[in-house]
């Protein structure tokens, strides 16, 4: 008998040093209280003094966990020469071995194993993992004869062996889930860092650049410089929209969803008009008409609704017919606030429409345009945050996105 168990004390806990290559297998059994209970039950039900789960391979026999009241002397990690055990034969033949009394057993009365280890009664039942692979054995010995030929005893051993196989499966799946959770935690940490980069290292410089370009546009410039400033403002606007959309998407994926701070406002038209004016300024070649008829207070988050309109307008500019005007309409109708953006151009296909509001959706004609495909997704999240929805209508003549929400909570 050889031993590789070291129960040294470290930080007040016993440290188990296990044979190399078998650490995971042994720990799965050793750390299971279910297995401990099953082994105790085996001993109580049969009167046998030693019961164990052994990891058995072609060349190794290693104790995973044992209950020992006869001083057999094996603990977790301890080994026997595999050729000296009957478990070796169980593995090779994939069969059970049950001996009630060695001297009276015609097959094993002269076998070397009972003589070497001094037992008279013996049980060894194969244990298989979830994939059906042989793992080891549920075995028990005693120096006295025991009544093991009762069919109920055999059924108990077989059932316990299956349960131990289930323990192996469940334990491994739990470890896999924990590993996946650890990976998700790492990914979440990276997302937070990503949000920080967007929020400071990218958004702030772009904001400063846009402010500088606005000041520059107010100065007298020649025709070439005016066009250059316009193109720069357009690029800065797209960068800003892209950063805000990615930032919102990252925040929503971190668990809190799209945040809105709603309050009653009676000047929502000013927010929307500002968005329209900005789009007109950076795309002067496009005609954007606005008809805003908002009466009374609207319970909303004005910056978020401004972002929703900006995203819908960006979509119209990108995918609409440049020769046809874009129409923006906003009004209060009954108990609803309605905002619509309409443009001409090719209709949205059925396959593209089914994915319009998914993150990173850029199908069909959209795939040839700039952007990550987050604008409409963010708009839909803002709509949901206001208890509303966005409906899409598209035919050969016009495409419209219509946002509806209740005026009050």
Automatic annotation (TrEMBL):
Keywords: ATP-binding, Kinase, Nucleotide-binding, Phosphoprotein, Transferase, Two-component regulatory system. It catalyses: ATP + protein L-histidine = ADP + protein N-phospho-L-histidine. Coiled coil: none annotated. One of its GO terms (biological process) is osmosensory signaling via phosphorelay pathway. GO terms for molecular function: ATP binding; phosphorelay response regulator activity; phosphorelay sensor kinase activity; protein kinase activator activity. It comes from Poseidonocella pacifica. Residues 197-409 form the Histidine kinase domain. Its EC number is 2.7.13.3. This is histidine kinase. Pfam families: GAF, HATPase_c, HisKA. PROSITE patterns: HIS_KIN (PS50109). CDD domains: HATPase, HisKA. It comes from the Bacteria. InterPro entries: BphY/WalK/GraS-like (IPR050351), GAF (IPR003018), GAF-like_dom_sf (IPR029016), HATPase_C_sf (IPR036890), HATPase_dom (IPR003594), His_kinase_dom (IPR005467), HisK_dim/P_dom (IPR003661), HisK_dim/P_sf (IPR036097).
